[in-house]
Design a protein that fits this description.
This protein is mostly helical and 395 residues long. The chain contains 18 helices and 2 strands. Helix content is 72%, strand content 1%.
Length: 395
């Protein structure tokens, strides 16, 4: 890897993301005032951080592209041969999951295909109380594990061919999971990362996040209104802003360990989602961090054997049944933990939207984006964070 200028650079991609936000507001029939507030904060902050005209040159381009998508194309694409095929494929895979996993079909549907139709309210409450409900939202964790397992398998001497095959796999995953906002975000982020590696240029994570945001909004202009979209990008924001700095603060022998990466990833993701989780659900399953670290090793087993069995069941049902046993055992383990773990969630006061904006501004001020060349503690960011938490309980 050469340390040249990142292919997805922060300045222009941040401009594209801001343009996408502005276009989403202009194209919406009922603009969300919270999004207006966030946009009002991002514009001056981006001008301070990036200080490049290229970011602002891309604003009208990105805004025009998204507005064309909103105005000239329907919100829901009409049914055609491709849409009908994808829908039929998804239904067949859901039926295969029901036949293979039976009493754990609801969990298998959720983890593998992001479907929650047959999950009962009692099951949902159990997984939510134990903090394991996020495992059923197919997102960055699933995409990262699948790409990690399949990346070496599809690697060839032709890097572009490998990139193309991996991109098709990601698009297939988006299709079978119903093109949810969280999967689209994770897929576009992974495509940006793979393309950066393909060009042998260091990936810039804020740029990758901005690229994923802009592309997701281009595909689904009103996705920002969904809770899943907001929580997905909130988790990614926490990891992008804090994970790298926290990992570098560890002793060198621990930095690359799987446990350290899982613990830091789960913690920073929860920090990123904290105000929005409290705003929408008013609870916090604090046990989610240690449980996620302990149960993450089961996810590769579930995804690898689960997907293989579900895909092969229509052609080779006996082989698919054999392959489903490891995935069934791992899913059963997660279900047993969720049913028998009686740890009450913390009840949290819903924060005011102004406090949410101030909280994320504090995370930004604590991140290397704001303190690129400073080794002293981020006093401004920590003070802003303390003020936001104080106002959280006062307002």
């Amino acid at each position: 890897m050469t340390d040249r200028r990142p292919w997805f650079h922060t300045r222009p991609m941040a401009g594209a993301a801001l343009g996408a936000i502005l276009a989403a507001i202009l194209g919406s029939l009922a603009p969300d005032w919270v999004l207006l507030t966030v946009c009002a904060v991002l514009v001056p902050v981006s001008a301070f951080l990036f200080r490049r005209k290229s970011a602002f040159f891309l604003l009208p381009i990105a805004a025009f592209a998204v507005l064309v998508r909103i105005v000239l194309l329907p919100t829901e694409m009409p049914d055609g041969p491709v849409a009908s095929f994808v829908s039929a494929l998804r239904e067949n895979l859901l039926g295969n999951a029901d036949a293979l996993f039976r009493d754990e079909a609801a969990a298998a549907r959720g983890i593998l295909l992001g479907d929650h139709e047959i999950m009962t309210a009692a099951e949902r409450a159990e997984y939510a109380q134990s903090g394991l409900l996020h495992l059923f939202a197919v997102s960055g964790l699933h995409v990262t594990i699948l790409v990690g397992m399949l990346g070496k398998a599809v690697r060839t001497e032709c890097k572009w061919l490998s990139f193309g095959v991996l991109t098709l796999i990601l698009l297939f995953l988006c299709a079978v999971t119903g093109f949810s906002a969280s999967v689209l975000r994770a897929a576009f982020a992974m495509i940006a990362l793979n393309l950066s590696g393909l060009r042998e240029r260091k990936a810039d994570m804020p740029s990758v996040m901005c690229f994923a945001f802009a592309m997701t909004i281009l595909c689904e202009p009103f996705a920002y209104e969904t809770v899943g979209f907001q929580l997905s990008f909130a988790a990614m924001t926490g990891m992008v802003l804090l994970a790298g700095k926290w990992r570098r603060s560890l002793p060198k022998p621990l930095r690359g360990s799987l446990i350290a990466r899982a613990l830091i990833g789960a913690t920073t993701a929860m920090i990123g989602m904290l105000p929005l989780t409290a705003y929408y659900f008013r609870t916090l399953a604090w046990i989610a961090i240690p449980l996620s670290v302990l149960l993450i090793p089961t996810m590769p087993v579930i995804l690898l054997f689960g997907f293989l069995s579900v895909l092969l069941y229509g052609v080779l049902p006996q082989l698919a049944s054999i392959l489903s046993y490891p995935a069934y055992g791992a899913i059963s383990l997660i279900a047993i933990v969720a049913k028998n773990l009686d740890v009450p969630a913390l009840q949290i006061h819903a924060p005011h939207p102004f406090v949410i904006v101030l909280y994320y501004l504090a995370l930004l001020l604590c991140s290397p984006l704001f303190l690129q060349n400073r080794r002293r503690p981020p006093w401004i960011g920590l003070a802003t964070l303390a003020v936001s938490i104080l106002l959280w309980f006062l307002i």
